Amino acid sequence: MRMSTFILAAILASGCSLQKDENKIILDVNAVANKRPDEVEKLIGPPDSLYSLQILGNVIFCQLYKKHNIEIQYPEGLATDIIVYGPH
């Protein structure tokens, strides 16, 4: 099981937007998953930063949404790794 599958299962889906509800972040991962970066930006807005990671020789494009503590990684060009960081 990919880590993204686990993370996607752990997030409550609600609408096509990001919402902050006290201590919870709500993201409709079904709307974001397997989309290109430009499609994700149309759904949830522009990211705070863009960067690339190199893992095992593969370059992975990433978008970071600081306000919501979410990083979206695009291995092979599609949003398949969605990481939600803790309240820290």
* Cα separation of the termini: 27 Å
User: Would you list the SSEs in sequence order as H and E?
Assistant: HEEHHEEEE
Spatial strand arrangement across the major sheet: 3-4-5-6
Radius of gyration: 12 Å
What assembly state would you assign to the polypeptide chains in this entry? single chain
Q: DSSP strand (E) fraction?
A: 35-45%
Low-confidence stretches: 1-16
Q: How would you characterize the largest beta sheet? A: 4 strands, antiparallel
**Fraction of residues in H or I helices:** 10-25%
Rough outline: globular
Q: How much is the average pLDDT?
A: 78
The number of helical elements comes to 3
User: Structural class, judged by helices and strands?
Assistant: alpha+beta
Number of strands: 6
Task: List the defining traits of the structure above.
single chain, 88 residues, alpha+beta, four-stranded antiparallel beta sheet, two-stranded antiparallel sheet, 3 helices, 36% strand, globular
Write the layout of secondary structure elements.
Elements: H1 3-10, E1 18-21, E2 24-27, H2 29-32, H3 37-44, E3 49-55, E4 58-65, E5 70-74, E6 81-84
Antiparallel strand pairs: 1-2, 3-4, 4-5, 5-6
Describe this structure in words.
This protein has 88 residues and is α+β, with helices and mostly antiparallel strands. 23% of the residues lie in helices and 36% in strands. The chain contains 3 helices and 6 strands; from the N terminus they run αββααββββ. Strands 3-4-5-6 form a 4-stranded antiparallel β-sheet. It has a two-stranded antiparallel sheet with strand order 1-2. The longest helix is centred in the N-terminal third of the chain and has 8 residues, at 3-10. The relative contact order is 0.22. Residues 1-16 have low confidence and may be disordered.
